[in-house]
Amino acid sequence: MLGLRDYLQIYTGIEIIKWDNQEGIVAMDSQDLPDILAYCLEMKPRPIWLTHVVNDERQLGNDFCLYLILHFPDKDFTLTLVAKGIKDEFPSLSLILPALNWSEREAQDLFGLRAVGHPDPRTLVLHPGWPKNFHPLRKDYKTGKEYKSFKRGPLVFPEMHGEGIFQVPVGPIHAGIIEPGHFRFYVIGEPVLHLEAQLFYTHKGIEKLLEGKSLEEGLLIIERVCGVCAVSHGLAYCEAIEKLANIELPRQVLLWRTILAELERVYNHIGDIGNMCAGVGFALGNANGSQSKENLQRLNLEFFGHRFLRGMVVPGGIKSVPGPKDSQEILNRLMELANDFEDWIPLLLEHDGFRQRAVTTGVLKTESAIDLGVTGPAARASGVAYDWRELHSHLLYPELMVKSVVEHNGDVWARLMVRVKETRESFRFLETLLRKGMQEAGRSSYIMNTFSNKLIPWQGAWGCVESPRGTDVIWLMLDDKGKIYRCRIRSASYANWPAVPLTVPGNIVPDFPLINKSFELCYSCCDR
Amino acid sequence: MWSILLRKLKMGSLTEKHEDSLIPHKSSDLPSNFRKSLQIRHLDCGSCNGCDWEMTALGNSLYDHQHFGIDFVASPRHADLLMCTGPGSTQLVNAAHETYEAMAKPKWVMAVGDCAIDGGVFKGAYASAGGIGKVLPVDIKVPGCPPKPDDMIKALLEFMGRKSVS
Question: What number is the ipTM of this complex?
Answer without folding.
Answer: 0.89
